[in-house]
Amino acid sequence: MKEKIEEYVRQVEAFNAQTLEDLEGFRIRFLSKKGIIPELFAHFKEVPTDQKKETGQSLNALKQSVQHRIAENREALSTAGEGEKEQSDLSLPADWHYQGTRHPVSIVKNQINSIFKRMGFQIAEGPEMEDDFHNFSALNFPPEHPARDMQDTFFVSKDPDMALRTHTSSVQVRIMETRKPPIRIIAPGRVFRNEAISARAHCIFHQVEGLYVDKNVSFAQMKQTLVQFVKEMFGPQAKIRLRPSYFPFTEPSAEMDVSCNICKGKGCNVCKYTGFLEIMGCGMVDPNVLKACDIDPDTYTGFAFGMGVERIAMLKYQVNDLRLYFENDLRFLQQFHSSMD
Ligand code: PHE
Asked: Any idea what the CATH number is for the domain that residue 315 is in?
């Protein structure tokens, strides 16, 4: 048996499969039920006792080298195959890769930012988790004031002073605390409200808010700035309408409507037959807000405005279900293409 094993060891070492079929033949010859290795094991009991140890060891070694040879050959054949494929495929077009598109909310947010940047507004950012002062108190929402109910949010149980911001007006406060007028900023960002999710409401959405504080800033300047924005965003035919409203941090305050771009102002079910759609809140910064930020309201005045990015996207793309903007369904997202980056 010793000689037989030695002979097989030589054969195994010399073996080099050219094809997978060769390799399979080799495997069957040595390892199948009736192959060489099981047969040698079957005859093992006939080996004289004093040779059992040595023969057993070489038999095991043979079995291992067969297995090793098979694995080695298989790998060599598969990489060789790949190499061949690569070479013969050189003339084919490259594999297709999905490049991705911008999210519609990002596309619209970038457009809003770029319109205001061209009018001299700088972009400002602040934290999503805010303290009571920046989100409410400095903005003239006294504690217990019912206006806080309009913007219920998510509080942090460990620290009752902290909450997820309900608007990016908190960024305006942070900027007014640290800079002297003239201040001309827009604050894009994610905001949070305690709302049940539906086609028209979501607990997370995006805003762009704006602030301009300087000497002699007037309501007329605010109106002209917003007219300019609307015409750039929706086209030169777009008109605006201001309706008196209430916000704790502006006085006077207004809601701004834009003429419906679906029926062109004639009246349809989207604009509920009014010809106009509400897109933002705005007004003159309340003197109390300026005071809370150490800006003298007798010297300076300012205007502020704020809009929901999803709302603008809904009008622009005429996709009226807010939930679609958060589900990240590629069939929806792949339909939007941005020409500006
Ligand atoms: N902060 C307001 C909101 O979230 C929007 C707004 C901003 C209104 C500035 C007036 C002035 O609803």
From this structure: 3.30.930.10
